[in-house]
Design goal:
Layout (H helix, E strand, L loop, with lengths): L5 H8 L5 E5 L5 H14 L8 E5 L2 H14 L2 H4 L3 E4 H11 L1 H4 L6 E3 L1 H15 L6 H17 L4 H7 L3 H19 L2 E3 L2 H12 L1 H10 L2 E4 L7 H11 L5 E5 L15 H8 L4 E5 L1 E2 L4 H11 L11 E2 L7 E8 H19 L6 E5 L5 H10 L4 E3 L9 H14 L4 H7 L9 H14 L3 H5 L4 H5 L2 H23 L3 H11 L2 H8 L3 H24 L8 H17 L8 E5 L8 E6 L10 H5 L3 H12 L2 E15 L2 E4 L4 H4 L6 E4 L7 H19 L1
Parallel strand pairs: 1-7, 1-8, 2-3, 2-6, 4-5, 6-7, 9-10, 11-16, 11-18, 12-14, 12-15, 13-14, 15-16
Antiparallel strand pairs: 16-17
Helix pairs in contact: 1-2, 2-3, 5-11, 7-8, 8-10, 9-10, 11-12, 11-13, 15-29, 16-17, 18-19, 18-27, 23-24, 24-26, 25-26
This protein binds adenosine-5'-triphosphate and magnesium ion.
């Protein structure tokens, strides 16, 4: 275990009053928190259940718990509360149900549920709204802002200055009434309710202040007003807390986070001790220079210096690719190549992006190359319902024994096969030792089912699928045949019926199109006859799912895919940041709203996740809504120090022999993984 440096030790041992650790990325702020928890328990004799630590994401909370667990013997770690602000708020509400005006088993509306309720209310109260979608967006944001600022509906009505705000305030009032009636809360309430309880109820306040002996807050720069107050009220006048943060990593202003809260601390607590850390233990020096150089373009409240004792490291690579598909391909190939040459593990690599939509091209490439990956904080493209449906048809086509694929599609779209029929079919198939699909065609099924109509439907389905299977497997152009199959079942209509909104339906159809185009792309570029067939392509796409089922959830060895926002606080030996283009990073909205500084902090967060190497990529043309659009390189690329970077053009320098060698080595690797 590493030894803390003198400043870190000072921060760990200071427990007499409020403490702020203000320091740049990778300087050991989170390490101070975890070590301090151990110190409080082992050296200061504080009971674990009276120590509370809060951080920003569930992933960060899990990691912090793990780190603390390793520092303490198992028993000592029991009872410490390490959680997100929202989970802490939820715990408090559960303890104070009556005061919160809630009944047991209250429900927590997710953002979809909340939006649905708001849409109903908007419809009722304000029927002529011409552009309801825009109005909805405004209202959702406004209500969330009010809650984060602890503004109640009555106050909202009085502070509203425009007509839109007034409407939003009225809807807010109705929304709260409905939540109450449904015995429900939303996400923002998880913070707002306990904060208000502490503010207004002395007994509750005293009880919690007594219980919370010491509070530690990570990523303090991203607290909003309600969270700031929650901390303040929980620690009370004794103010036994440690907050750690980095104003340069404040990336949640759009959700109401106020980095000014760090300055506010110095006003609220005149005896606040501030410790600054300057040594970065995470990154090679070049990466750090790049990070410092980019963030140097933002104005600064607190001056910070960061230095590293690690060596210079490789230059930062910037790879320009012709299109976004090429970008994905390049990243996946580069990653495999790097891994094999340097004998690393998959989990040493992270691919970061600005928007979740960027992940699907990467996912598809990783699948094609059989690289196991994990998406954090977002849905995998391949676990979307519409993609699973299409993939299930394809799975059944290449493998008629795939019963789970059969069960997924037999009623997608509806064919009127009831659960009783399926049960009979399954038990017949089991008796006979055949697959569900084969069972549909067997003579004996008639007796087992005892029902003519269901039998005919199953037989027709099997025959129909057999026909399409032949068409798809026996042609040299399988993708148009797959489209025919989907047309045959009116899949597009089915999607339109299922999707909650027309936009949702379009997005799903676009996803299906993306899948089919990807399959076509894989067929086109297959180099050997073995790869150039639809069965091989589908097998490749589904193999990763099989690996997933085998692998243990979290400690498995996989490449990490996540948004820049979700990457905060985490670190990886090798990092790729993709899509370094104007309008993407920085995001279009931030350019329009003149908030590029926040995007620059996001870029800083991304760069500082890397320990050893950093690769940035961009596409010259990107597909958006069916068309290719030309892009401009991100302004952040110009802000990197020229002497530390290496620009790489579009041409691949790898010879066919080299490719083959990498391919063979990779296959051996994969076999080992599957064993
Ligand atoms: P971020 O701002 O990204 O959240 P951080 O300031 O919280 O970063 P940590 O994650 O705590 O930084 O630490 C970064 C890395 O440096 C970790 O791998 C940690 O183990 C290591 N580290 C921290 N302090 C020391 C030390 N004194 N000696 C050696 N390694 C250290
Ligand atoms: Mg940290």
């Amino acid at each position: 275990m590493s030894t803390l440096n003198p400043r870190q030790l000072e921060a760990m041992k200071y427990i007499d009053g409020p403490l702020l650790v203000l320091a740049g990325a990778g300087s050991g702020k989170t390490s101070v928190i975890t070590r301090k928890i151990a110190y409080l328990i082992e050296e200061c004799g504080i009971k674990p259940h009276r120590i509370f630590a809060v951080t920003f994401t569930n992933k960060a909370a899990r990691e912090m718990k793990e780190r603390v667990g390793k520092l303490l013997s198992g028993k000592n770690a029991q009872g410490i509360s390490v959680s997100t602000f929202h989970t802490l708020g939820l715990t408090m509400i559960r303890h104070e149900l009556e005061a919160a005006g809630l009944k047991q088993n209250f429900s927590i509306l997710d953002s979809d549920d909340a939006q649905r309720l708001l849409a109903d209310l908007l419809h009722k109260e304000n029927s002529p709204a011409a552009d309801r979608k825009e109005a909805m967006k405004f209202i959702i944001k406004k209500i969330s802002d009010w809650k984060n600022d602890l503004i109640q509906p009555v106050q909202a009505v009085s502070v509203a200055t425009t007509n839109e705000e007034l409407i939003a305030a009225q809807i807010y009032e109705a929304y709260q009434r409905h939540l109450r009636a449904y015995n429900a809360v939303d996400f923002d309430d998880l913070i707002a309710i306990p904060t208000r309880l502490l503010q207004e109820n002395q007994a509750i306040r005293e009880k919690w202040q007594e219980r919370v002996h010491y509070l530690l807050v990570d990523e303090y720069q991203d607290t909003n007003t309600a969270q700031y107050l929650l901390v303040k009220l929980l620690v009370g006048a004794r103010a036994r807390f440690t907050a750690v943060g980095d104003d340069d990593q404040s990336i949640y202003a759009w959700r109401g986070a106020k980095p000014e809260n760090m300055i506010q601390l110095t006003h609220d607590y005149p005896n606040l001790k501030v410790v600054k850390l300057e040594q970065n233990y995470r990154s090679m020096a070049r990466i750090l220079t790049a990070a410092n150089s980019v963030i140097g373009n933002n104005p600064h409240v607190f001056e910070k210096k960061l230095w590293s004792q690690h060596g210079l490291g490789d230059r930062i690579r910037i790879i320009t690719c012709p299109t976004d598909r090429d970008e994905a391909e390049r990243v996946a190939n580069d990653l495999i190549h790097h891994k094999l040459i340097n004998s690393r593990t998959w989990k040493d690599y992270a691919i970061l992006y600005r928007g979740n939509f960027q992940a699907k091209a990467i996912e598809t490439q990783l699948r094609e190359l059989q690289i196991p990956y994990k998406i954090s904080g977002g849905q995998s493209f391949y676990s979307r319902a519409e993609i699973k449906d299409v993939m299930s048809y394809l799975r059944l086509i290449i493998n008629p024994s795939d019963d789970s694929a059969f069960l997924r599609i037999i009623n997608t779209p509806k064919r009127g096969i009831g659960p009783t029929t399926l049960e009979k079919l399954a038990s017949y198939a089991q008796q006979r030792g055949v697959s569900l699909l084969t069972a549909c065609q067997e003579f004996g099924l008639a007796e087992a089912l005892g029902q003519k109509k269901a039998l005919v439907t199953l037989q027709e389905f099997a025959q129909w699928l057999e026909h399409h299977t032949r068409e798809i497997l026996e042609t040299t152009e399988p993708v148009p045949e797959i489209r025919k199959l989907l047309n045959d079942i009116d899949f597009e209509d089915y999607i339109r019926e299922q999707a909650p909104t027309p936009q949702g339906a379009e997005a799903r159809l676009e996803n299906i199109n993306f899948l089919l185009t990807s399959i076509q792309g894989m067929l086109n570029k297959a180099e050997s006859e073995d790869d150039k067939n639809i069965e091989a392509v589908i097998r490749k796409l589904v193999l990763i799912d099989l690996l997933d089922q085998q692998a243990e959830e979290d400690d498995s060895d996989r490449v990490q895919l996540l948004t820049l926002h979700a990457s905060k606080g985490l670190e990886y030996p090798h990092v790729y940041i993709i899509g370094l283009e104007e309008d993407l990073l920085p995001h279009r909205n931030s350019i329009d709203a003149d908030t590029v500084e926040e995007e620059r902090r996001l870029m800083y967060v991304g760069i500082t996740r890397a320990k050893q190497t950093l690769t940035l990529t961009l596409a010259e043309r990107r597909k958006a809504g069916g068309d290719f659009r030309s892009t401009m390189p991100s302004r952040f690329l110009d802000e990197l120090p020229h002497e530390e970077i290496e620009w790489i053009g579009r041409t691949s320098t790898r010879t066919p022999q080299e490719k083959q060698r990498i391919g063979a080595a990779h296959l051996a690797n994969l076999r080992a993984l599957l064993k």
